[in-house]
Write a structure and sequence with these properties.
With 184 residues, the chain is of the alpha+beta class. It is built from 4 helices and 8 strands. It has one domain: 3-Layer(aba) Sandwich (Aminopeptidase). An 8-stranded mixed sheet has the order 1-2-3-4-5-6-8-7, sandwiched between helices.
Length: 184
Amino acid sequence: MAFIEIQTPRLLLRQWQESDYEPFIALNADPVVMEYFESVRTREESLAQIGRITANIDKNGYGFFAVERKDTGQFIGFTGLTNAPFESWFTPCIEIGWRMSRAHWGQGFATEAAEACLQFGFDKLDVQHIYSFTSIHNNRSEHVMLRIGMQRVGEFDHPNVKNGHYLKPHVLYRISAPTTKKQP
C-alpha cells in the first residue's frame, strides 16, 4: 500500500528518512521526553523501533509518521496511527500516538499533527473509532487527547508494563468518526 504524505499548515508527516535517525535516537534517550515510559531507549533499541515503524508504514500505508517542520525541514518527532500492539478489553483497535522533542513542546505541533492523523484515519482509512492511551501521570499527552476532541473512556492496566510499576495504570480515550462524511 502506498503512503501519501500528510501536510498541515506547519508540518509534513512522512515516511522516515536516514536523516531522522540521530534526532530520533536523541529523542528516545531524553529522560524528560521518556518520563512516562519504563526507561529511555538505547541507540540499538531506537534503530530497531524505526525499522518496525517504517515496515509498518510500507505494509499498511499508515503508522507512526516522521514529523518534519516545513519552515526548517527539521525532524521533530512522530505522530500517527497504528494497531495497538497488545491484548486488552478494547483491542484490537487503531491507536493514535505522538512523541515530540522537548524543544518543540508547547507550540501546538502534537495537536496539529494528531488532528491531521485523525482526519486521515477517518477519511482515507475509513476507521470508525480511534483510541489513545497514556500513563495516568502523563497530563501533557492527556491534554492533547482532549484538544483533539477525544473522550475519556476509562482506565486500564497496560499489559506490557511490569506489575507494581507506577506507570502500569493508564487512561484510555476514544474518538469516533463523524456521522456525516464530506462529499468529494
